[in-house]
Design brief:
119 residues, mainly beta, Jelly Rolls, seven-stranded antiparallel β-sheet, 4% helix, globular
């Protein structure tokens, strides 16, 4: 294993809402993703999901509130909680979640990304 540079990894792709695995630890994956615009309402029935903002600003909408995250901040969405991430302008984030988690959770659609894409 060598040092992982987030900026170098982020420069290797330009698509939005398509997480890229950069490392694994035990049963967990560290994924980089660029987001812009609206995502879909979804939940992850069996796992929490951690969002860490590396650059930019994003929001996570819930049924009763919206959480805004800025660069250097993180938030853990508890399992089973319906949520919808979005970003007005491009935002670069890291997601930490167990292996095999589908980005759209319980919803299939055009934003469902291929799993286990490593860069």
């Amino acid at each position: 294993m060598s040092v992982i540079n987030f900026k170098d990894k982020l420069n290797k792709f330009s698509d939005h809402w398509s997480p890229k695995v950069i490392a694994e630890m035990n049963d967990y994956q560290f994924k980089l993703v660029k987001i812009k615009g609206d995502f879909v309402w979804h939940n992850h029935e069996h796992t929490d999901e951690t969002f860490i903002v590396l650059e930019g600003e994003m929001a996570i909408q819930f049924e009763d509130r919206t959480v805004t995250l800025n660069e250097g901040e993180m938030y853990v969405v508890k399992k089973g909680i319906e949520h919808k991430p979005y970003a007005e302008t491009e935002c670069k984030i890291m997601i930490i979640e167990p292996n095999g988690v589908i980005n759209t959770g319980n919803v299939e659609g055009n934003l469902t990304a291929s799993n286990d894409v490593c860069i």
